[in-house]
Amino acid sequence: MKISVVGTGYVGLVTGVCLSEIGHDVTCIDTDISKIDKMRQGQSPIYEPGLEELMVKNINEGRLHFTNVHKEGFENSEVVFIAVGTPQLPNGSANLQYIEAVAEQIAQEVTTDVVVVTKSTVPVGTNYRVEKIIRENLKNDVKISIASNPEFLREGSAVQDTFNGDRIVIGTDNAETAAILEEMYKPLNIPVFKTDISSSEMIKYASNAFLATKISFINEISNICEKLGANVEDVANGMGYDQRIGRNFLNAGIGYGGSCFPKDTHALVQIAGGVEHDFELLRSVIQVNNNQQRLMVDKIVSRFGNLEGKVISLLGLAFKPNTDDMREAASIVLAKELVAQGAKVKAYDPIAMANAKALLPEAVTYEKSVSGVLQNADAAVIITEWDEFKNMNLKDLHKVMNEAVVFDGRNCFDEKTVTEAGIEYHSVGRKSIYTSKSLINS
Ligand code: NAD
Q1: Out of 7, 172, 217, 409, which could bridge 84 as a Cys pair, Cβ 3.0 to 4.6 Å?
Q2: In this structure, are residues 66 and 39 in contact, taking their beta carbons and an 8 Å threshold?
Q3: Which residue lies with its CA nearest to atom 18 of ligand 1?
Q4: Which tens digits make up the pLDDT trace of 236-273?
Q5: Which residues are CB-contacts of 291 (< 8 A; sequence separation ≥ 6)?
Q6: Residue 335 Cβ contacting ligand 1 at under 6 Å
Q7: Distance of CA 229 to the CA centre of its chain
């Protein structure tokens, strides 16, 4: 099938590459010419495990193409995916300007019958808006049908998720359109759930809001555990055995970030508000998350008193491991707060440092390795649970740090490992571990 994908970000590029891998002829379109140039040379503009290899393979096999000219990309396409960003507006709602611009481009440039599929996360009603824009501006005499097909991939395992998704949701009002998309996805062998357009749009927001709720829930439990001397890891494990609950998304930490949960929860509060429903529960989920991101700073301040001149190392900057995405990462909040309190902040992330530099305070300095970032530090803060940090030998901290004090925002280590290493350790929802020396100092 001939397919075009508009927008080559984390969703569009992965979708385009994976559809070419299952045999379709795919053209990816982006307005960013520097991205197009890179991709034509077989380089992925984003870090996503396995993506670049698959991209090169399908370019070489002639099934994957890139262009910044929409007309060229749409030529003879049977399906056009819209995968552009829907970032958050200052009032919390989704910014649909990029979606609407693509709808106008489709209206102007398509020359054959086409199914227009919105993969971007969009508020209920947006697909109909897309259809209206296209119909009102349609230049050629072609047949257009629309479908909602929200995306559930996770950054860091996006390729894997695309080939092994739990379900593909297709929202259409037209059986023929649904059949075209089902046929297109058939080689993936993933269950297809078909519904109407509005329900499909809502499934995406409801799913992300539910997952965010699970995270904020366990974070609240962790805060209570800390005060009561319980261990949140054991609590989550014990809860997770219950199949009605499940263990996923019950990891206490310093809150969720990234390009989806923060903006999608805000957008859903706005969507609810639009029909005069106050989504109280979700507003609390957001507030709990905001508080949680600041929690580690409070712990560091209460440990040291004054942070003026203290050297603090940030281990990990990306919002989660295996991605270079810095959007809404907890590291931004932490770095700003620590710098504001007078700390000297050093940072290291295996992949995300280039993107981080644009978002973190200028005062932050960057190191090329874990040992570099820990050198002469008064405290280390684990923000992202990269394997590199989870696998480090905690005993080595004594050799490089001024004092081996670790604030672990992702609960990477257990009590036994920490005690054996003889370091001072503060995590989330578990009791702090002190050494005899640190007890005197703290
Ligand atoms: P992104 O910001 O990484 O990429 C968007 C791309 O669209 C950019 O490369 C931009 O240059 C391009 N673009 C903008 N306007 C264009 C136009 N008129 N023509 C061609 N290209 C254009 O975005 P993303 O993270 O891939 O997210 C895309 C959508 O998918 C969003 O709605 C998001 O909520 C949703 N989503 C994202 C994820 C994720 O993990 N990132 C997961 C599921 C759903």
Answers
A1: 7
A2: yes
A3: 102
A4: 999 999 999 999 999 999 999 999 999 999 999 999 99
A5: none
A6: no
A7: 32
Percentage of the chain lying above the pLDDT 90 cut = 98
The finding on whether 66 has its CB within 6 A of some atom of ligand 1 is: no
Residues noted as catalytic:
260
Residue nearest to atom 15 of ligand 1 (CA): 98
Report pLDDT digits (tens) over 27-54. 999 999 999 999 999 999 999 999 999 9
Q: Which of 162, 173, 177 is nearest to 48 (CA)?
A: 162
Which pLDDT does position 358 carry in this prediction?
96
Residue 440: CB atoms within 10 Å = 8
Collapsing DSSP states into helix, strand and coil, what is residue 332? Answer: helix
Rounded Cα gap, residues 257 and 125, in angstroms: 26
Can you state the percent helix, strand and coil of the chain, rounding each to 5?
45, 15, 40
Q: What is the rounded CA–CA span in Å between residue 127 and residue 197?
A: 7
Evaluate whether 408 touches 222 at the Cβ level (below 8 Å).
no
Closest to 295 measured CA to CA, from 360, 226, 397? 226
Cβ atoms of 42 and 56 within 8 Å: the answer is yes
In angstroms, rounded to a whole number, what is the distance separating the alpha carbons of residues 165 and 151? 10
Per-10-residue mean pLDDT of the chain, 442 residues long, equals 98 98 98 97 96 98 98 97 98 98 98 98 98 97 98 96 98 97 98 98 98 98 97 98 97 95 98 98 98 94 95 97 95 96 98 97 97 97 97 96 97 96 97 80 54
d(C-alpha 439, C-alpha 442), whole Å = 5
- Which of 5, 6, 10 for a ligand 1 pocket mutation test, highest count of atoms within 8 Å of Cβ? 10
Q: Which residue's CA is the nearest one to ligand 1's atom 2?
A: 85
**Ligand 1 contact via 17 beta carbon (within 6 Å):** no
What pLDDT, on the 0 to 100 scale, is given for residue 437? 74
